[in-house]
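Lab notebook, page 48
Experiment: co-folding of the full assembly
Goal: obtain a model of how the components sit together before planning crosslinking
Operator: M.T.
Materials (sequences as entered):
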Amino acid sequence: MLAMQMSDSILINGSFNGAISALDRGFSYGDGVFRTVKVVHGLPEHWPVHYQKLVKDCSAIGIVCPSAEVLINDFEQLFSMEELVAVAKIIITRGEGERGYNPPAITNPMRVMIKSSLPNYPQHHFDEGVSLHLCETRVGHQPKLAGVKHLNRLENVLARMEWHDPKIADGLMLDIANNVIECTAANIFARYDNVLMTPQLDQCGVAGVTRKQIMARAHTLLLKTAVETMDLKQLLSADEVIICNSLFGVWQVRQLENKKWFKQDLAINLRKILHS
Amino acid sequence: MLAMQMSDSILINGSFNGAISALDRGFSYGDGVFRTVKVVHGLPEHWPVHYQKLVKDCSAIGIVCPSAEVLINDFEQLFSMEELVAVAKIIITRGEGERGYNPPAITNPMRVMIKSSLPNYPQHHFDEGVSLHLCETRVGHQPKLAGVKHLNRLENVLARMEWHDPKIADGLMLDIANNVIECTAANIFARYDNVLMTPQLDQCGVAGVTRKQIMARAHTLLLKTAVETMDLKQLLSADEVIICNSLFGVWQVRQLENKKWFKQDLAINLRKILHS
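Observation: model returned without errors.
Model output:
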């Protein structure tokens, strides 16, 4: 079952000579969780919040999360202070198992950390805002996994396959009940006057770390926050819409289907408070 | 990204020295499909139906399935005529990709074939029938993936983790609309007089090969077949209930929750027609 991994950008269980087993339950069933973290000068940004979320997501599917020390050691092996910015993807799986859904009585969780470059985002996504595609692929309901960033991501893959126009920054996903949930790789907020609203994610969706940070800090912009069920019509009637994730931070949404929003400052202001 | 696999029971892209990449999209997102096939004296049982289903499932998520010849060659490498019975698990993924949900412009699908022993099923499951657990974990709706045996199987894992009693053969899963769908690793049929009914799987569930074979051959037992939406109450009022998959074939259900069924012959008769 052992395999040799030949790459200086991938750590498997802390080793450059580690292995992904064909019997790993992450591979067999998507039985695991992951995080994508921006790494600035060797240091993972917003690490305490990311680690807290990783522990919570592992716990949601009954995996014991590796200690923060173990992961910090992985960061130190893979990243250096000299690098301005890079991306770490952390994957934690339930580890190897025999064929069949039943996990072994004793599991050995497996961890992978993969280093990659920060995507070459167009500068005008930051300066002018972005256009979104409205995805036909819906997010299914599964309350037991709602909010969790697990490895069962075929819905996101199918949704992302719907458009090829590079001018489209992301795709908005509704759920099977026609509620607005998220983008394929970002959370979404809509502002109505002084209320910053984000979709309820108790049936599906991924509750991301940047979404959490924005909710915790919006009051510094004199904005109240609300987590609500929201349909497409409600979203389209918002004064402003932004999307967010851990890599690009915050982008102003300027267009969705036929709806256009004027250039406004919510994304700029949220970016500031995320780094204050 | 290359890795050496050290096992004589695992073929990766046709090679015993193959590799599971940490960047494989099967591992990253569950972006792939699989099959479990019984292999008798080196030959995969019901192979044409299995291969047809594999092609269909690959197609549902936009993967080009390897040719039958390629897979037959894998079987020949891994199994021998001298072996009475064994199990082949075939996994097809979209192959490697950069970080992010968007598949690469050119994909190289990856295939894995894993050989394992047939589970040591208790003989009384065949002779006397089985008890089922009623799972609390529901199957979410996702019409785009309904019926497909893809690698996003966390729901089955969570459902299978609900019981530890080895006397329970499988768990019955309802969907989020309270309809009967399947067991964690089997399809289900209910007989009402001369009608053999199985749940509609247009919103979720896996439409297995044994289910298909039973539907195609039930007429030889003078049974009509029907695919219907079915709730738990309807299931519990059936004259007989059976579950089926490619490994154990067919088992008579004798108990689910407080409901008990008398010993009857449907499973025995279906087993016969599957091998006629």
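Interpretation: Chain B touches chain A through 64 residues (CB under 8 Å).
Next step: discuss with group before ordering constructs.
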